[in-house]
Structures are given as structure tokens and as C-alpha cells.
Amino acid sequence: xxxxxxxxxxxxxxxxxxxxxxxxxxxxxxxxxxxxxxxxxxxxxxxxxxxxxxxxxxxxxxxxxxxxxxxxxxxxxxxxxxxxxxxxxxxxxxxxxxxxxxxxxxxxxxxxxxxxxxxxxxxxxxxxxxxxxxxxxxxxxxxxxxxxxxxxxxxxxxxxxxxxxxxxxxxxxxxxxxxxxxxxxxxxxxxxxxxxxxxx
Length: 200
Known about the structure:
Elements: H1 8-23, H2 30-37, H3 41-47, H4 51-76, H5 91-100, H6 109-116, H7 124-140, H8 150-169, H9 173-192
Helix pairs in contact: 1-2, 1-4, 4-7, 5-8, 5-9, 6-7, 7-8, 8-9
């Protein structure tokens, strides 16, 4: 995407997003973001008074962008049509498989940010928790409403998703396939705990 025509603030944010995600927050200095976004230091600091401000904006932007992709990817696989069928939970493995083979995949930006900056950037951990909470909320929406342990099952599936993300981030194509297969087995095991009335 050509960002040169975008307003300065958006150029800075999109540039920071790509650099922070690909190379890490700590490894990416402000001067690098300024140079890559084609703005002056004065312009940068007018929009983002500190790197911490930019990190928080990056996390907010990443959350919106990733959640939109996640919901869309589930929808493209028929999640809406399968509402009320616990087997819809299995779609998570296919969705993750799609993301893991994306050339720019570098794991979960929120897990990475927690490991990199943790509590040193005010608001970063809160944003990471909120991101995971909303992800679990979407996963819970895949399960039939009558399932009593719906949220607990969604949380377990969410932990499985996070584990697969970390595993996929650490390996080659074979490890990525293994991560997806492991996730699929976990999801199948979760579905198997549900009453037959929840499965079509």
C-alpha cells in the first residue's frame, strides 16, 4: 500500500505499525520511523510527543486491524451460517493456518509487546488484555448460546490459539503445520466435551 499521499499522522502510524510488528518495538527507534514515514522531527513530535504515545497508538491500531481480519476470516469460512453448531469452533484452526502463512506473520503483536515493553509503557498491558478479551468474545460467539460453560470453553480455545501462534512464530513450515494440527486437535477435544445437542 502506497502511504505517501496519506496525512502525516497516518503515515507515521502505518510506518510504525509495520516496523514495530516486523522488527520489534525496542529495536525500532523514533529516527527510523521518522525517516521511513518521510516526515520531519517537528511533525512527528507534534502528533506523538513520545515513543510511548506511538506504542499505545500502534497497539490500538493493531487491535482494530487484527480483529477486523479475524472476524472477516471466520465469516469467509461460514461462521455465521454455522451459528449454533459447536463445530464452528474448528474454524479457528483454518483461520490461524491462513494467518501463519502470511509472509509478514511475526506472531501476536500483543504477546510480543507484553514481552518487550510489559509494564514499562503505561497502558500497554491493559491493551493486550483487552485485545485477548475481545478475541475470546468472538470465539464464544461461535458456540451455541445454550452451552453453559461457553465463556470457559472460549477461554480454553483462546489459550490454544495463543499457544499455536507462539509455536508457529518459532518454526519453519513444518512447525507451522504442526501448530495448526495441534490447535485442531485441542479444538476437537473441546467440542467433544459438549452435549450432542450442541453439535450438528
